[in-house]
UniProtKB/TrEMBL annotation:
It is a multi-pass membrane protein. Gene3D superfamilies: 3.55.50.30, Carboxypeptidase-like, regulatory domain (2.60.40.1120), TonB-dependent receptor, beta-barrel domain (2.40.170.20), TonB-dependent receptor, plug domain (2.170.130.10). The keyword Endoplasmic reticulum does not apply. This is SusC/RagA family TonB-linked outer membrane protein. It holds the Pfam family CarbopepD_reg_2. Its main location: membrane. Keywords: Cell outer membrane, Membrane, Signal, Transmembrane, Transmembrane beta strand, Transport. It comes from the Bacteria. It comes from Parapedobacter pyrenivorans. Residues 46-96 form the Secretin/TonB short N-terminal domain. The keyword Signal applies. Residues 1-17 form the signal peptide.
Amino acid sequence: MKLALFLTLAFVFQAVAESKAQKITLNVQNTTLREVMKEIQKQQGYSFLFRGDRIADTRVDAQVKQADFADAMQAILTGHGLDWSLDDGIITITTKQPIVEKERPVIQDRILTGLVTDESGIPLVGVTVSVVGKDIRALTDQYGAYRIVLPDEENTLLAFSSVGFETQEQPIRNQSSLNIVLKAVMGDLDEVVVVGYGTMKKSDITGSVASIKGEKITNTSSGSFEALLQGRVAGLHVINNNNDNPQGGSTVRVRGISSINGSNAPLVVVDGIPFGDAGGLNLINPNTILSMEVLKDASATAIYGSRGSNGVIMITTKRGDKHSPNVWLDQKTSFGSFSEKLDYWHNPLLMAELADEANENAGIDPIYIGRRATDGTYYPSRAAIASGAWPYQTEWAGYVFRPTAVTSETNLGVQGGGDKSQYYLGLGYYDGEGMQRNDDYRKLTLDLSYQHELSDYLTIISKAGFIDGDRNRNYGMNYQRNPLFPAYNGDGTYFKANSLDYGNPLALTNERKDVSPNTDGYATLQFNVKLAKPLELVLRGNTRAGLSGHNFYNPRVYTQGGDLYDGEGGIASSSYRNVTLDGYLTYTNTFAEKHAFTVMAGVTYENGTHKSLNTTGRGFANDNLMEENMSGATERFITNGFSKSVLASGFTRFNYAYHGKYLLTFTARADGSSKFGENNKWGFFPSGAASWRLSEEAFLKDVEAINDLKIRASYGVSGNQGIAPYQTISKYGQDYYYLNGEEFIIYGLGQQIGREGIGDRYVQWGGMATKDLRWEKTSQFDVGVDATMLRNRLNVTFDYYYKKTNDLLRQQFLNPSTGFDRVWTNDGEIENRGVELAVDGKILTSGKLKFDAALVFSLNRNKVVNIGSQEKSGYVVDQNGLRYEPYGSGIFNDAFLNVLAIGQPVNAFYGYRVDGIIQEMPGNPVKMTRPGEFNYVGLREDGTLDPASRQIIGDPNPDFTSSLNLQLMHDVGIDFSLMLYTMYGNDVFSNRKLDRISLQEGRWTGENPNNVRPKLRADRQYFASSWFVEDGSFLRIQQVTLGYTFPHIPFIKQARVFLNASNPIVFSNVSEYDPEVAENGRGAAPYPRVAIYTAGLQLKF
C-alpha cells in the first residue's frame, strides 16, 4: 500500500505540472485567424475574443511543433500588427497600439445582439437573457435572436436560461454581438450511473437503482457519512439514534430486515472496491464524494452475490478532469445545543418529597429525615432543604454537559489535468465536540486520485485514501444524580457515591480516561486495456489496512456499581488488512443498427485478516501512570484473537437492447467462501430483468408531455455471509466457570486465573463443527416505473417489491449434555414487501425565481414466516397458539421483550397488557393488587402474574417513512432549502416514562385517582407491559439552509456563504427525549437530540 500511495502522489504532482505545460502543434497556411484560434481552443481549452474590425478574418501562416503556448502565439501573430493577452482563461487579440498615457474612456450604454441555438444549431425561442444582478432582461424571438441594452459598466455578466437547458453565464466586455449555444439538461433517465463492475445510462438499466449527488449532503457537519443519507433515497432506512456522538454512528437498512443473526447492513463499494458493511462509510469524507448509487433489487445486487441481499451502496469519489486547475475550499463551523430542555431535578425539595412518598407506599421508612443511612451517606431532612439550612443544591447538568458543542470542519480540493493526465487531491480536517464535556472526535483525511492515458490502448488509474482519527469518550452522563449531594467533600476530594447513586459524574468527567485512536488507509491501482474496439479489459488491485486502539483508566476515586477496584485500566488494539484483486472483460457491440448488447465477465479474489490484543488490569498502587503501568496491577487479564477469511468469485452480466426500447439483463455470480462448511463452500446467485421503454413506441413517441417512460421487472437471488469466520469448525478458546463462588476464566492452552489464584492448564473447546452450514439466500421480485415528463421537469420512480429470505443463519440451542449451548445452523424464513415512490419536480424554471420539490416515500411490511423446528430454535407456543422465541436481551424482571413470532414483524414487543390503574380492590389486597397499581391482564389475587397471559403488545417497525425536500433559488444569488422527515406508525418501548421528572406530577394518589400513571412505590417490580408502549411517530425539520452566491469576485470563480440548521424542531408525543430509537424499538436516550447550527463558506478558484 505504501508503494501505491507513493506512486499516486508522484503521478498527481506530475499531472499538475503537465496541465500547466500543454504544448501547441500547428501547421496552417493562409488560414483565417478565427480558424487557427479554434484549433488552439481544442488543444488548450481557452476561449478567445477579437477586438477590432476584421481581425478574425486575418489570414496567417504558422508551423509550430510542441511549442510553448506563448511561443506559438508569437509565431502566429508576428508580422500582422496584432497583440494578444490572456486573462481569466480568455485570449484577447487586438491591434497593436502605441503605449501612451490617456484617460480611461467613459463606457456608454450599448446594444448587444446575437443568436441562441441548441447543440444542433436549431434556434431557441423564448430564452431569457438577463444581466446578472440587474433588473435587465430580454427574450429571444422566433429566430432565436435577441437584443439587449447593457448597463454603463466595464464588466457585465450575462445569463442565458431556458426550460430544459443548462443556464449559461458569459462575461461581456466590449463586443457588440454574442452567439450562444445552450446544452440540453440531462434528464434523470439519461443520467449515467455506476453499477457493479461498470456504468450504464439510467434509461438502459433494468433494475432498481437510486442516485444521490455529492453536493446534496455537504451543507452540515457530521463525524460520519451515513447520518447525512436519511430521507434521501426511497427504500434506504437510516436510524440516527446517536447524533451526539461526534464520531457518528447510525443503523442503515435497505428494504427492511432480512436476517436474524447475520448482518443486515448493506454492502458498501467505493470506486469498485467492496469496503464491507455500512460501517465502511466512516472511512469516507463526504466532501470527496462525486455521486452515490443505491442498488436495491436482485437484478442490481446479484452481481455481488453472497453479499448483496441487504442492498449495495456504490460510492464514486472525485477524480481529475481535463480543464485548468480548480481549487475548492470549504469551511464550516457548527454549534450544537439540545433541541429540548433537559428534564432534571430543578426542585430538590420536590425530589425528596417524592422519594419519601415512594418509600412510604412501599412500607419503607422515609430517608429525608436528617439521618445517616447504613452506607454512611447523610440525607438531610425536608425541613432543612425547604429552609435552606442544607447548603447543597447541585445542578449536575452543568458539570456534565457543555452549554454549546462547537465543531469545525475544513476541506480543500484541487482538481485538474490535461488530455492525457488528470488528478484530484482532497484534504479534510474535522474537529467535533459532543455535548458531554471531554467528549470529542478529531480526524484528518487525505484523498488522492490520478489517471493517465499511456496510449490509445492503456489507461492507468490510481486512488489512495487515508484517515487518522482520535476519539475521546466521556461516560459521566448521570446528570439526574441527587442534587442534594455535593460535587466535592469538605477537604476538596470528590464526594464518593454509594450504591444508590451510581457514581460522581464530575469525577467521571474529569478523572476517567477513555481514548480510541484509529488509522485507516487504502490504495487502488487499476489498468483499463482496450484490446480491440468492442473489447475492454479492467485489471484492479486494492489493499486496505487499519489499526485502532482503546486505552482507558478508571482512577481509584472512581466507583463502578458500588465497588472500588483501586484503579482499573485497559489497553486494547486491533488491526485488519484486506486485499482485493479482480479482473473483468467487457464486450460491447451493435448489429443491424438495432441489436445492441454488452457482455461482461470476470473473477475476483478477496483476502481479509484481523488481529486483536486486549489487556485489563485492576489494583494499582497509584494513578500516576494510569494504564501505562499495567505491570503494576495486582490482577491482570489478557486476551487475543486472530481471524482470516477468503472469498473467491466468478461473475457475468449480459445486457441486450432491441431498438433501444426492449431491454434484457441477466446476471450471475458464484461465490466460494471460507466461512461456510466444507459441504457448502460455494453458492450460485442468478438474476434476470426486463424493461420496456414505452416512450420509444410510435403511440407515445410524439406525446410532447412524455420525455421518457419505462416499465421494468426483475427477479433474482442474492446471499448473505454476514457471520464471523470459523463458525463451522471445531475450535478451542476461553470460557467462564465458577468454583466455590469465584469466577474463573479458562484460556485455551493457557492458565486458569481467578480472583484468588492460578489453577491448572486447560484446553477449552469453543465450538462444534457444522459442515453443512450454508448461505442465507434472499429471493426478490421487483416491478417498477421510471418516467421523465414535461420537458424534463418531472421525474417519477415507483417500485413494488417482495423479497423472501430463507435458510436463515441461526444459532441452534443444544442439550447441555453435549458440552455446548448452541451451534450455527440454517433455519427459518423472513419476508419483506413494500412500495417506494420518488418524485422530483422543477416547479418554477423561468424568471428570477426557481423552485424545485422532491418527495421520497417508503413503505415496508416485515413478517416472520417460519422460525424452524422447535428442536432447533427452542420456540414456545403460547395460550393463543402463537409460536415465538425470545430475540434480544431482557428488560426489568423479564428475560426478554422482543420476539420472533410467526406472522409477526421482526422485533415485535411481547409482554403483559395493562388495562389502566386499579382504583379499588375489596378484601385485603397484596401490594400489586392495591389501588394505584397497574391493572395487568392476567393479574392473580396473590399479586403474581400469569405468564400465559402475555401477548404481542407492539411493533417497532414504522408503517412508512417519508421526506419532502424544497429548494428555492433567486437570480440575485440567494438559495433556500428545507427538508422535512417523518416516520409514522412505529411503536416505542419508553423507559423514560419511569424517570422523567415532568411526568411524576400526574401520578396516582388518593387525591388524584387517575387511570394513567401508577402511584409511586420504591419496591415495585416492573415487567414488560403495554403501559410502556407509545406511538413513536414523529415529524422532524431535518435541514434548513439559507445561502448566498456572490455574483462576481476577482480571481474567484465562485463564492458562497450559507447558514444551516439540522434537527432544530421535532414534533412527537413520545415520552422519550428522542423519538428516533434503535430498530428494536427500545428507547433509552439519556438526553435530547442535538440541534446543530452551521455557518459555512464555499470558495472555488
